[in-house]
Amino acid sequence: METSLTALKLEVDQPIEVKPRPTLEEVFRKHFHLVYKIGLTYTSNTFDADDVVQNTFLQMARYDRLYLIECPPAYFRQAAVHQALKIIRKRKDVELTANADLYAASPPPDSSSTDSREQHMLRVIESLRPAAALLVKLRYLEGLSNYDIAQKLGKSEAVVAVTLYRLRRRLKKLAKGEQ
Fold first, then answer.
1. Where residue 36 falls among pLDDT bands split at 50, 70, 90?
2. Burial of 84 by CB count in 10 Å (0-12 exposed, 13-18 middle, 19+ buried)?
3. Quick one: which H or E segment has residue 141?
4. Per CATH, the architecture of 95-176 is what?
């Protein structure tokens, strides 16, 4: 019996190696791209993908679950899919995807910040014909409906809708640098 007690005593006396808990910032830096990529894949929208990232990591911070995760990539895949599906379910208006098409185009080569994307898109809009630029500004910057734009410009709602559809396609090409 003494040998087993001695063995137990030796095991208990040895220091227990405790891994330091990762900080939220470390976890964010390590798994940001995975969560963003999943969010973008599911929502097809950069703004919603940013929301997926934000919601996923805010939930982590709120409940302090960092120490419970055994396999972080699997956890973040599941959490990102869940957040993306929540955002998709909340969409009530189909026009959200149409509005996002303006900004979903790839950014200019040397810009990665939101401000430079917006400035690039404004330059692209300004390069359109004045009547086309006015339509885009009224719809996406002023937030007017197709009906309101049609009333304001004295055109039919169908003409405004078709013209905006064509302009969105044109803007995507211009934003990518194609002419």
1. very high
2. buried
3. none
4. Orthogonal Bundle (1.10)
